[in-house]
Amino acid sequence: MSFRSLRIVLQVGKLLAFTPGHKEIKNGTVPQKVYSYSMVTLITVGVGISVGYRVPDYVRLTYMRAIIQILLDSILYVLNICTVLTVLWKRPQWHKLTKNLKTVQNHNNIVEKSDRFLFVFYNLIYCGYQSYMTLIFYKIMGVEFFKQFAIEYLQLYGQFIINFAFYVFSKMVLVRYRSLRKNLESQVRLVRKLSSRRIVYSLDHLNRIKYDIYLLKESVDIINNLFGWPVLLNIMFAGLQMLVYMQGIVVGAFYTYDTIIYTVMIILWHCVITLSNILLCDAVSSEVNKILSVAYSLDKHSLGDDRNDLTEFIDVVKDNFPTFSAARFFDINRSTIFGIFDAIITFLIVMIQFESHRISTTGQSCGCNGTSEI
Fold first, then answer.
1. pTM for this one?
2. 109: left (phi over 0), alpha (psi -120 to 50) or beta
3. Which of 50, 63, 228, 301 is least surrounded by Cβ atoms within 10 Å, i.e. has the fewest?
4. Are 159 and 167 a contacting pair, CB within 8 Å?
């Protein structure tokens, strides 16, 4: 990912007040604050009207399904409001984050690939399945569909923007750690070559790498501060969505090919978006572990004061080990994936048992037609 890709994401997000603009990141103006609060008001009023139209459908749901649906609506609303207010109140941290990433890039002469077409590609997929969903449920519900779910077009796209912004920033951090590791590996090869000729090589270059380590650790902390709650809410929302749709498939709530295809698309979408961000966070930690391994291999060829400098460098890397977290509730790594699927499978079994018991006692399946699960 490059700053060009970041610029595109931020400019699109700025239109909806979900990210600051690329050029005016540092300070917010009065019109920008008014626009942000106006977006909060729009989302709040829109959700209120939407819920009013959905109440009759919610009443027909089972207690467990109603609770999960209310949680989904609440999480999505809180996610949107939290995102807008984070942009409004923490604008200087966005500026600090981009400044740190730019500094490390300049130190290491990093040439980044422009992945702006990746953003366009994901937008096309997003618009594609949203359009497909609109066609399916307009046939089922007519104009009532837009009364109940029109505001979610804005809400879900805002969720998509914040997910992609997190992906871009995390990818930029990964690229910079990878560059530091490659620079250190080149130094190791040079030291090995010189040591075979009994030539002493200075390790002064480690001071510059240490400074970059400090900046990247600070950048990860800023990302946690800016995206911690949105990431937590996104994981919760994705998990509940996959749970609802998987349960709908198992119990037969979706009885047409169109709705089944749409359900599979939604599950895959949430899996790809959520898992890619989690694996990216884990890749950053893995890259720093590789830096430590390279530093330890360099220790075999260092002597005297150089050994002290190397020991200090290793301590700096350990003390500034980057860890992504979801609002400090848990660290984000590969084990998070198993935790998510473990929770989904556990609750899916419980929901299926409740539904089976209800059908056996009443002789009726779920009265909803799947529209409340959009």
1. 0.89
2. left
3. 63
4. no
